[in-house]
C-alpha cells in the first residue's frame, strides 16, 4: 500500500484521487473501508495524518508518525517509499523465520499421525492374534500400546485438560506479566533466542534511523520506536533508557546500562554519537544484524533438518520394532 501511495503521489495525482484508487485496488475490506473514510476526511480539509490517525487500530503508530513527518517536510512520497521498503523487508524476514520452522513442524505432525494410526489400528490386530495363540506380548509392544490406549480411552479428558491449559496460557499471555514472561522466554531459547534478539535490534535500529533521517529529535524518535518493538522486555529497557537520556546520559551509556544489544551494537552506537553520524550507523547496524539473522536462519534450517530426521528415525524405529515384535512372536508360535 505504501509503495502504491508513493508512486501515485510522485506522478502528480491529487491526494483524494490517490486514496480513492488505493481504496478500489485493496482486497481487504477493513483497509478499503478505512481508505474510503480517509479520502472523505481529506476532501473535507483534513491532512492525511489527521485522517489516518483515526484508524490507529488498523495502521501502526510508526507508519502514522512517518506520514506526519512526510507531510510537514513536503517529502511524503519519499517517506512512503522508505516505509514500503521497510515493511517489505520486515515481511520477507518474517517469512524466512516461518519457513525455517514449518518443515520440522510438518514432519513431526505427519509422523505422529502415521504412528498413531499404526498403533491404534494395525498393531492391536496382531497382538489379538498373538494372545489367542497363547503367545506373550513383548514388554516394549505392551508399553507402547498402553500409552496409545490410555490416550484413546481418556481422549475426552486429556483433550479437555489440554484445551483448558491452552486457554489459561492464552489468557495469561495477554496480561502484562504474561507478555513479560513469554517475551523473556523467547529471548532465552538456545540458538533461536539469539536470532530473535538480533532481529529485534535490527528492526529497532532501522525504525530509529528512519525517524532520525526524517528530522525527528532523538527522544521523540525513541518514544515512537517503543510502539514498534514487539517484545515487552526490550520495550521496557528502551523506556528506561529514554528516562536516562532525558536526565542527560548519552544513548550509548543508557543502552549499555539496560543491556540493549550486544557489544557490536553498542560500539557502533558510541562511534555514531561521537562522530555525529548516528543515523548512518543505525542503518549500518540494521544491515549487519539483518544479514546475521538471515545467515543464522539458513544455518538453523540446515541443522534442524538432519536433527529432526534423526530424532524421528529413533522414535519411529522404537515404535516399528514394538509393532513388529508381535508378528515375529506369531511366526515363532506357528513354527
From TrEMBL:
PROSITE patterns: T2SP_F. Residues 2-124, 204-326 form the Type II secretion system protein GspF domain. Pfam families: T2SSF. Keywords: Cell membrane, Membrane, Transmembrane, Transmembrane helix, Transport. It comes from the Bacteria. It is a multi-pass membrane protein. One of its GO terms (cellular component) is plasma membrane. It is found in: Cell membrane. The chain crosses the membrane at residues 99-120, 126-148, 155-173, 208-229, 307-328. One of its GO terms (biological process) is protein secretion. Belongs to the GSP F family. This is Type II secretion system F family protein.
Amino acid at each position: 500500500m505504501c509503495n502504491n501511495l508513493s508512486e501515485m503521489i510522485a506522478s502528480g495525482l491529487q491526494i483524494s484521487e490517490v486514496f480513492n484508487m488505493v481504496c478500489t485496488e485493496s482486497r481487504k475490506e477493513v483497509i478499503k473501508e478505512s481508505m474510503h473514510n480517509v479520502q472523505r476526511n481529506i476532501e473535507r480539509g483534513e491532512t492525511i495524518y489527521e485522517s489516518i490517525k483515526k484508524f490507529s487500530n488498523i495502521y501502526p503508530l510508526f507508519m502514522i508518525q512517518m506520514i506526519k513527518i512526510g507531510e510537514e517536510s513536503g517529502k511524503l512520497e519519499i517517506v512512503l517509499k522508505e516505509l514500503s521498503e521497510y515493511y517489505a523487508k520486515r515481511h520477507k524476514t518474517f517469512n524466512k523465520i516461518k519457513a525455517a520452522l514449518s518443515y520440522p513442524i510438518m514432519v513431526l505432525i505427519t509422523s505422529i499421525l502415521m504412528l498413531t494410526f499404526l498403533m491404534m489400528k494395525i498393531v492391536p490386530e496382531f497382538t489379538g492374534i498373538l494372545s489367542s495363540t497363547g503367545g506373550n506380548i513383548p514388554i516394549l509392544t505392551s508399553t507402547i500400546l498402553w500409552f496409545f490406549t490410555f490416550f484413546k480411552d481418556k481422549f475426552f479428558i486429556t483433550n479437555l485438560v489440554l484445551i483448558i491449559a491452552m486457554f489459561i496460557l492464552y489468557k495469561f499471555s495477554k496480561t502484562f506479566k504474561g507478555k513479560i514472561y513469554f517475551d523473556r522466554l523467547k529471548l532465552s531459547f538456545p540458538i533461536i533466542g539469539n536470532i530473535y534478539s538480533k532481529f529485534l535490534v535490527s528492526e529497532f535500529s532501522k525504525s530509529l534511523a528512519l525517524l532520525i533521517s526524517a528530522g525527528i529529535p532523538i527522544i521523540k524518535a525513541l518514544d515512537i520506536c517503543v510502539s514498534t518493538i514487539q517484545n515487552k522486555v526490550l520495550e521496557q529497557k528502551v523506556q528506561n533508557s529514554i528516562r536516562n537520556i532525558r536526565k542527560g546520559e548519552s544513548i550509548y551509556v543508557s543502552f549499555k546500562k539496560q543491556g540493549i544489544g550486544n557489544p557490536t551494537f553498542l560500539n557502533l552506537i558510541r562511534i555514531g554519537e561521537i562522530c555525529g553520524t548516528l543515523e548512518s550507523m543505525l542503518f549500518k547496524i540494521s544491515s549487519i544484524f539483518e544479514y546475521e539473522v538471515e545467515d543464522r536462519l539458513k544455518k538453523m534450517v540446515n541443522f534442524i533438518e538432519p536433527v529432526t530426521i534423526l530424532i524421528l528415525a529413533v522414535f519411529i524405529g522404537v515404535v516399528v520394532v514394538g509393532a513388529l515384535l508381535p508378528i515375529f512372536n506369531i511366526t515363532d508360535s506357528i513354527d
